[in-house]
UniProtKB/TrEMBL annotation:
Its main location: cytoplasm. CHCR repeats lie at residues 562-706. Belongs to the VPS41 family. GO terms for cellular component: clathrin-coated vesicle; cytosol; early endosome membrane; Golgi apparatus; HOPS complex; late endosome membrane; lysosomal membrane. Keywords: Autophagy, Cytoplasm, Cytoplasmic vesicle, Endosome, Golgi apparatus, Lysosome, Membrane, Metal-binding, Protein transport, Transmembrane, Transmembrane helix, Transport, Zinc, Zinc-finger. PANTHER family: VACUOLAR PROTEIN SORTING VPS41, VACUOLAR PROTEIN SORTING-ASSOCIATED PROTEIN 41 HOMOLOG. Plays a role in vesicle-mediated protein trafficking to lysosomal compartments including the endocytic membrane transport pathways. It is found in: Cytoplasm, Cytosol; Early endosome membrane; Endosome membrane; Late endosome membrane. Pfam families: Beta-prop_Vps41, TPR_Vps41, zf-RING_Vps41. It is a peripheral membrane protein. This is Vacuolar protein sorting-associated protein 41 homolog. Residues 785-833 form the RING-type domain.
Length: 848
């Protein structure tokens, strides 16, 4: 079954086995008690002590420990023991037998009660607190239910609690409540008030009560579970409201759950909010087609208001089940440890809740290894039987057996952890089954690190069958995991068979890099034209190794190569690069062009060479080069441009050499582009050029139109219009004349606007100057004469003195100022006037 059982079972053996070989079990009770054990003055240990009391058909009572060992034996009667009862202290026991004997005695004291009745006594129950002097009570029953109480002079006084409804079949005492069952139903009595609270009639009266006895069980002090036939009732004892009492008991019973089962009930026990039910089963034999006894069942059910939900169901193989009746089975339980004892005449079976170890056992049995591993990890502090590592190793083996090699290898990371011995063992196991590739991705690379032989073994496996996988491992694994020399030699041997294999060559370059043999790695990278070559050069400063490999680098990636060379001019000089590229002028041009873009002066000695290179390989950048360069020879450049008939470049060179008229003529004759000619004339701003342009254009109507449209702001259009021959047809003449007039009007408007702005600004500045000149100027002892450099104020203030202070804040003694030669009496600051006239003028003025 895929559903995990809730309970596990084992037979109670040792002394029980010996007892049941000669005798048969008739009843049993379980007792558990907390004991305090003082280890020292300050340490007290609390533990649960449990023992069993087993009654037999031959009238013996045995006290047993939980392993079934006999601790005490009592010969009570020669006939069957019907019931055994223990108080909560476990110090007093009540026993009744089929021959009418009732005994209540102390297990550890001389206290004892004996009584023999004239009928079989089926039940006995001592008060839960019998150990206390004021609770010395017990009940017993055959045809009557009698309550015995110890009174004056230690005499026992019986009183009849109930009679007249047949034999009493079962009794359970909890707290102040006694529940018993007779032939008619179940009654509950409040011992304190001596009031009977309720009567729960049995449902199926067709069943003999002696063959199918009632099962009673107190879940707690106020909840009673009743099982009779195939019916289950869960009853709750509740307090009655004061207004409802009248002549009624102060308590009442409410049936909160009621349902029927498939089989007859032999015993009941609570399990948290669920029920454990021991069922007696009958089935039809396939051979004889006669109804016979089947194996009893132990079911766990969840009570519902009118039904129940089955949680688990187990058929129990007890000895002699074929001969047993419903009344032969009993179910006792231990509340503290959730232990359930199934008692039959020839066997006692213990059922206990499965713990996490049992859960893991079941998962392993069902080969649910991953769930078992997860359960072990969650409960690693509580499990006792299993180890996480053992479960993990079993899981790996299971996956390998199923052929799920990759998953098995992946689980190794988690399960093996840092255990190098286990890792190496698993690697060899994968090697034996030919699956080293599967585990290669998951091998540890740091903390822990395995023996180099392990990694070398994996690399050799890949090298023999998978070059790409081999290359991937070399990239991913640190070079110190294995012996690099051994792997390099292995790759070299394979390259002898396939010397052009790019994967092996690239991997060999990486191995050389790990081994710091950068020169060999660089050669391979260049041969392969690999993108990492520049990174390798930068990272390991291999510029000395590439001095004679510049052409190869440029052929591979000229842009990256040039950037690298220019960034490291101190390591590889410009002259060296140009020399290396002498036979590859197209690459030489790329290098020099980028050098010129970075700095116009660094490669000035090669500017003459660059003229030819631009002309040959990059004409669009020739003219910008000629404009930006201040070091190229113009005559050489003009010669090359004229040879190649580069008109624009020739025009620029002629104009730069001062031959503007020839340049203009070339534009007009070669290019025949009036707009460019006009633009050139505007740039030169030479009247003679405009005159030449007009003379050349006067007999060419399209040129006249272009001039009329563009020269209005540079040359008087009237000069051109007067020279136009009468009758000449000029395209778009009207539009051109309208444009001239519009341009003229625009110039007038601009002049008027500028005039207004000038006047407004002048007035504003005049006002500002006036306000400034009206302000006073502070003259004190700190000021000096700008001519003689003595204090401006005399030391003797009583003497008269004259001081001249200009608005520029310069101050002079009047006698220090030069005498003005002009008729006007207005004087000017000698210092400020000198600034306008030029250097030395102030000195000259002072000499005068």
């Amino acid at each position: 079954s895929e559903e995990e059982p809730k309970l596990k079972y084992e037979r109670l053996s040792n002394g029980v086995t010996e007892i049941l070989q000669k005798d048969a079990a008739s009843c049993m009770t379980v007792h558990e008690k907390f004991w305090l054990w003082c280890l020292c003055v300050y340490v007290i240990s609390l533990f649960l002590l449990q023992f069993l009391a087993l009654g037999t058909h031959y009238g013996k009572v045995y006290l047993l420990d939980v392993q079934g060992n006999i601790t005490q034996k009592f010969d009570v009667s020669p006939v069957k023991i019907n019931q055994i009862s223990l108080d909560e202290s476990g110090e007093h026991m009540g026993v009744c037998s089929e021959d009418g004997k009732v005994q209540v005695f102390g297990l550890y004291s001389a206290e004892e009660f004996h009584e023999t009745f004239d009928c079989p006594i089926k039940i006995v129950a001592v008060h839960p607190h019998f150990v206390r002097s004021h609770f010395k009570q017990f009940v017993t029953g055959g045809k009557k239910l009698l309550l015995y109480e110890r009174g004056w002079m230690n005499r026992w006084k019986p009183s009849v609690l109930h009679e007249g409804e047949g034999n009493i079949r079962n009794v359970k005492w909890r707290g102040h409540l006694i529940a018993w069952a007779n032939n008619m139903g179940v009654k509950i009595l409040d011992v304190i008030s001596k009031q009977r609270i309720t009567n729960v009639p049995r449902d199926d009266i067709s069943l003999r009560p002696d063959m199918y006895p009632c099962s009673l069980c107190w879940k707690d002090n106020l909840t009673l579970i009743i099982g009779w036939g195939n019916s289950v009732k869960i009853c709750s004892v509740k307090e009655r409201h004061a207004s409802e009492m009248r002549d009624l008991p102060n308590r009442y019973v409410e049936i909160v759950f009621q349902f029927d089962t498939e089989f007859y009930i032999s015993g009941l026990a609570p399990l948290c909010d669920q029920l454990v039910i021991l069922s007696y089963v009958k089935e039809i034999s396939e051979k004889t087609e006669v109804e016979c006894c089947a194996r009893p069942r132990l079911d766990i059910v969840q009570p519902l208001p009118e039904s129940c939900e089955e949680i688990s169901s187990d058929a129990l193989t007890v000895r002699g089940f074929q001969e047993n009746e419903c009344r032969d089975y009993h179910l006792e339980y231990s509340e503290g440890e959730s232990l359930f004892y199934i008692i039959s005449p020839r066997d006692v079976v213990v059922a206990k809740e499965r713990d996490q170890d049992d859960h893991i056992d079941w998962l392993l049995e069902k080969k649910k290894y991953e769930e078992a591993l997860m359960a072990a990890e969650i409960s690693q502090k509580t499990i006792k039987k299993h180890k996480i590592l053992d479960i993990g190793l079993a899981y790996i083996n299971h996956l390998v057996e199923k052929g799920e090699y990759d998953l098995a290898a992946r689980k190794c990371q988690k399960i093996l952890g840092k255990n190098t011995e286990l890792w190496e063992f698993e690697v060899y196991k994968f090697k034996e089954i030919g699956q080293l590739k599967a585990i290669s991705r998951y091998l540890p690379r740091r903390d822990p690190v395995l023996k180099p032989l392990i990694y070398e073994m994996v690399l050799h496996e890949f090298l023999e069958s998978d070059y790409e996988g081999f290359a991937t491992l070399i990239k991913e694994w640190p070079g110190d995991l294995y012996n690099n020399t051994i792997i390099v030699q292995a790759v070299v041997d394979h390259l002898k068979k396939d010397p052009q294999n790019r994967t092996l060559l690239q991997t060999l370059a990486e191995l050389y890099t790990y081994d710091q043999r950068y020169g060999r790695a660089l050669e391979i990278y260049l041969t392969l034209r690999h993108k990492d070559v520049f990174q390798l050069i930068h990272k390991h400063n291999l510029f000395s190794s590439i001095r004679d490999k510049i052409v190869l680098l440029m052929d591979f990636d000229s842009e990256k190569a040039v950037d690298m060379l220019l960034d490291n001019e101190d390591k590889i000089s410009i002259d060296r690069v140009v020399e290396e590229l002498e036979n590859r002028p197209e690459l030489q041009h790329v290098y020099l062009h980028k050098l010129f873009k970075r700095d116009h002066h660094k490669g000035q000695r090669y500017h003459e060479k660059q003229i030819s290179l631009y002309a040959e390989y990059d004409r669009p950048n020739l003219l910008p080069f000629l404009r930006d360069s201040t070091h190229c020879p113009l005559e050489k450049a003009l010669e090359i441009c004229q040879q190649r008939n580069f008109v624009e470049e020739t025009v620029y060179l002629l104009s730069r050499m001062g031959n503007s008229r020839s340049a203009l003529k070339m534009i007009m004759e070669e290019l025949q582009d009036v707009d460019k000619a006009i633009e050139f004339a505007k740039e030169q701003d030479d009247g003679e050029l405009w005159e030449d342009l007009i003379l050349y254009s006067i007999d060419k109507p399209p040129f006249i139109t272009g001039l009329l449209n563009n020269i209005g702001t540079h040359v008087d259009p009237i000069l051109l219009i007067h020279r136009i021959k009468e009758g000449m047809e000029i395209p778009n003449l009207r539009d051109s004349l309208v444009k001239i007039l519009q341009d003229y009007n625009l110039q007038i408007l601009l002049r008027e606007g500028c005039k207004k702005i000038l006047v407004a600004d002048s007035l504003s500045l005049l006002k500002k100057m006036h306000r400034t000149q009206m302000k006073g100027v502070l003259v004190d002892e700190e000021n000096i004469c700008e001519s003689c450099l003595s204090p401006i104020l005399p030391s003797d203030a009583s003497k008269s003195f004259n001081v001249v202070v200009f608005h520029c804040r310069h101050m002079f003694h009047k006698e220090c100022l030069p005498v003005s030669n002009t008729v006007s009496p207005v004087q000017f600051c000698n210092i400020c006037s000198a600034k306008h006239r030029g250097p030395g003028s102030a000195i000259l003025e002072m000499k005068k």
